[in-house]
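In response to reviewer comment 3 from the previous cycle, which asked for concrete evidence that the modeling workflow produces usable outputs, we include below a single protein chain processed end to end. The sequence was submitted unchanged, and the resulting structure tokens are shown without manual editing.
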Amino acid sequence: LVVGDIATDAAVVVADVVAQRGRIDLLVNNAGANVGARQLADLSDEDWDGMQAVNLRGTFQATRTVASVMAAQDGGSIVCVSSIAARGFRLASNAGYAAMKGGLISFVQVAAMQLGAAGIRVNCVCPGPTRTESFEDAVRGMAERDGIAVDAAEAQMVAIFGAALRKVVEPAEVAATIAFLLSDEASAITGQTLNVDAGLVYG
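The workflow returned the following structure tokens.
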């Protein structure tokens, strides 16, 4: 187990992993930061800088460092986790978060083009509202506020989002998509972004 701050310690973390394991074949950039719902006028410079440090700089540093290891091997596969906030989701929490996650998509496209000759694939997934701890906290908060059952609150939230499949995304569904993109079964896929959102946004 190697622990570090992805925004500042990417090189140290990668060096420790290589020292322990000898090589790195797969990387998932899943670190993310958000300040929650904010109107544009309420976003501070500190909000912006904090989100940028994790969502963009951390991913950039981790990818750059790991790619140098992969290039010296026989390639590898990288997946970055963005968000449907980057894809025009009308309920995105704030413009800064959407900008950071949109930047990840562009980063993946160019990185894939530049690293492909070294046998390194780079792809991206954009989860929709997913059954995380923060999602369940929001559902419980809605239930308490409206005096309804938790199941009813979740159904209300799903209706507000408007997903075609009328469901919340399960973490395992996002994980399965990432696992596919990392695997040899996706050996001809690079530079792509897949939405895992139960049908919220298209494109």
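The first helix runs from residue 10 to 21. We consider this sufficient to address the reviewer's concern, and the full set will be provided in the supplementary archive.
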